[in-house]
Amino acid sequence: MIVVKRKPLEEILSYIEGHDKILLLGCQECPYGCATAGEDEVKKLVEEIKNKMKNLGKFIEISEKTLIRLCELQYVKGINDFKNEFEAVVTLSCGVGINLIADVYPEIEVYPGVNTLFMGAKLRKGIYVEKCRACGDCIVGYTAGLCPITRCPKNMLNGPCGGSKNGVCEVRKGLPCVWDQIIRRLKKRGKLEKLMEIWEAKDWRSFYGEGIRELREVESWK
Amino acid sequence: MEIKTNLQKVLESGQFAVTAEIDPPKNADLELIKEKIKWLKGYVDAVNITDSPRATVKMSSLAGAVILQKENIEPVMHITCRDRNRIAIQSELLGASALGVKNILCLTGDYVSLGDHPQAKPVFDLDSIQLISLAKNLSEGKFFNKKEIKGKHPYFFIGAVENPFADPLEFRPIRLAKKIKAGAKFIQTQIVYNVERFEKFIKLCEDLGILEKVYILAGIAPPKSLKMLKYMKENKVPGIEVPDELIKRMESAKDEKEEGINIAVEIIERIRENPGVSGVHIMAIRWEFIVPEIVKRAKLYPR
Asked: Which domains does chain B show, CATH number per domain?
């Protein structure tokens, strides 16, 4: 899932200052899993904003909607039905959602209610760990399913570096050295030969693209 | 054209090589390098000049290398993958070669969060082994993209590093073999305090049959004080292993500096007996003036 974290209330308030009517948009996809943008969380943020405004002696009208997926055009198009009911939008979706809204509705003022952190796994409520950087050229078939591009701070393809000790990375206490893990697993499977070869430098174009990355498997997006 | 460097000649002739290391200053004062050079001159075969070690901003290793050359000291220029992509690295190496730098040491580099600008974007386009391949390519007249360098191309005596104290121990020699295959001709190791583990590592390299393909220079750092040893022991410096006995020895020392020199000399003497080792690399950071004393006491003088 895409892991997101709510922005501080003060920052959100700074965006909506001066507006009388705003829309708070939740998303039922990944942020739901992070408990950031589900209906309860949207309601909670509405309360927080209203209370704060009340203390400041101001009033703001807030409507709320939680859509199925703010990263999919067909659902974002639904905003059209009520776009006259607000002056600005705060979304609790990831950066994909907010960018898509901004693309589809150039005239709408849209603000992020969260920081988009990473693609990761939920271990349990409140604990999320990055697992993939979407580099576009997956090599984990050779690395026992563990991604060195994501998990090695130096993105090494010929690891481990000299900072690997007792299975731990030099960069941060508690961060396992992924190359140590890879070597141990492949050794157990009798598949170390692949690591004897020199791995060529990565072609980072699949990661950085030219501008943005796109996948077009049909002629037109319409 | 291959013109052998002094370090290369020493190693190829079978003499026990001695190199030292200078961290460039954290300012624009070249006199600070010149002062350190004065101490080292005549006592070492070449001097390493580091590339913003610990990810902390220092004068560039290329500038430092050129200053060394002007003072008639042969530099070993460090180059890391931390701050430059493959374009910048090649550009830097072409420039270094044009200015007469021939010994280079290829490293991945410390991670940026360890340094004084932890907010910086880490580069790591290549890793150390790919960097060695790049340097080898340049030395053979090819860019990293395999296209021909038209006109004069560099020639480098390529070095790399290895940490015999990192894990997994049984994989370290295999990884070293990859560095040799990529083009490394000499290796400078992490600081050796745990001689037993170092010897075990050398034995594993011997078993793998790689010792005759590369010159290994053992890293030596005279501990200046108990405080310094403890700091390293607490793993504040990545990759260094400090045995408990060494801490105890320093604790009971009357004169810590004198004991530090003794420790360094003893380690050099013991390592020198190992036929798999071709020299020592003395890293007396912020204590460079002690290098001549160590070299003399270890009977490695005159050079």
From this structure: 6-297 (3.20.20.220)
